[in-house]
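Illustration: atp-dependent protease subunit.
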Amino acid sequence: MSLPADMTEAGSLRRIAEALERLAPPPQPAPDFRGDAFVWHPDPDRVAPVKRVNRVDLSLLVGVERARDTLLANTRAFAQGFPANNALLWGARGMGKSSLVKAVHAAVQAEEPSLKIVEVAREDLPSIGRCLQLLREAPGRFVLFCDDLSFSHDDAHYKSLKAVLDGGIEGRPENVVLYATSNRRHLMPRDMIENERSTAITPSEAVEEKVSLSDRFGLWLGFHPCSQDEYLSMIRGYCEAFGIAISEAELWAEAIEWQATRGARSGRVAWQFVTDLAGRRGVRLA
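Result:
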């Protein structure tokens, strides 16, 4: 027995409507900015709150006092509604660049609760314009944080970054500032820059577009390998903060041996040693 024509048509229309809903899902609800820290996710565009930020206290960061004071002053001015610069933290690996950004945010946020931090992954930079539009209309002030920023051969993501630094016709949102970390001062590998110079018809112009990306950051904060005294001071500070009981002579001997096996000294190596030491001594790093 065949169905009436009107019932067949209704079923077809329902299936078409369901298919269209799958292709074009309903709009996302308005973002909730009641938290302090968020991560940007595109497709669909949303900011996901972070319940617990992985960071250390500002007082535990040793050997970066100049960068700390400069970034703290810049962030405090921004949080209070005054002009502030975008900042590029560049230099040696493991010397606390990203740790400093998160620690400074926590310190200033305790004074100015409206200050929030939003992390953007490097691979999500093409969607940064949509993120800016979302933050432009949101309450509060935002540190847009991009960690380990660098660009490789044939990587055009750096062009998307200019939307944050220059802002296009609308300008950068007044309530947003960008902090980025990188191992490279100019964000591009040297051989990439040299290749642009050697193959371009006008070498200086080809190189300028890439090298000048760093120039768009108002603050350049350099991080350099630490001395042995600074390395040991970092470890002593961690031990005191977490209550790890150990004699000075034993601590120094073990710390220097640990550094020798790693072939480097840095804040990251110091923290890895403290993690190992705490595990062996039964101390929780809360």
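Reading the tokens back as a structure: The first strand starts at residue 37 and ends at 41.
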